[in-house]
Amino acid sequence: xxxxxxxxxxxxxxxxxxxxxxxxxxxxxxxxxxxxxxxxxxxxxxxxxxxxxxxxxxxxxxxxxxxxxxxxxxxxxxxxxxxxxxxxxxxxxxxxxxxxxxxxxxxxxxxxxxxxxxxxxxxxxxxxxxxxxxxxxxxxxxxxxxxxxxxxxxxxxxxxxxxxxxxxxxxxxxxxxxxxxxxxxxxxxxxxxxxxxxxxxxxxxxxxxxxxxxxxxxxxxxxxxxxxxxxxxxxxxxxxxxxxxxxxxxxxxxxxxxxxxxxxxxxxxxxxxxxxxxxxxxxxxxxxxxxxxxxxxxxxxxxxxxxxxxxxxxxxxxxxxxxxxxxxxxxxxxxxxxxxx
Length: 341
Hints:
Distance between the termini: 32 Å
Shape: globular
Oligomer: single chain
């Protein structure tokens, strides 16, 4: 059995640790070491862990480094064949590790994998951030089997097939440790949101596969650090999405994609202004400004990377498919339009 480490990145998540560490310990057993990497929490998370769970190793980061850098710093101190990056607000189930590790052991080209992710509060439905595997359209919009924009499907076994996906969610990400470090880990500048998509894109461009394993299932609360309706989350999602595209897209697609995205982001900003208020409108504008200011740094990063369309990319505009053509479920998308080579 390979050496496995479950690493939870924590920032002021003591209530989640209290709730979800006991079942994690029970259902992990001797299959993996459990580690909590703390981003300088101020809520007594560390004192609680030392008192209530002295068997769990703690890694203390000096500050709130966000998801990306927080994990990068912590994982440099973890020796294992496989990392499982696990959000603190996830409830695991019995036998959740073995099916995924067995799948990854069966093919050395599988670099990352995720289990089925259901909602903690709506337990028969998929969860927004991961569901049954992540995908992306040709204009950079992420979606999942089981979730297109705000439409979340009930799990009726329709996605119980083991398939290759574009990206595996960072909420419960199984990854080969050697590859994680070899490919540079997460991009620190993302801070949080979409860094796992950026990493999976690099995996694809180096010839590795990303998989979904339905034989393992976890339940996710979601929005544990930032609520779903947050101008900060809006800012990070829009900024990081542009960074993601600029770093990884092949040059031949750059102008077309960015021209369309400027138009669509303008529409989104106006929608935010009328529905969510000025803060979200400004978050979109600020995201674009931040992206343009970061272009010199992003250009240097881009020059070091391989480029190509992400594996399993949907070669259509998901905004058009969802809002104009009424395709609300993954199964309604044209399955012949996924880039497979």
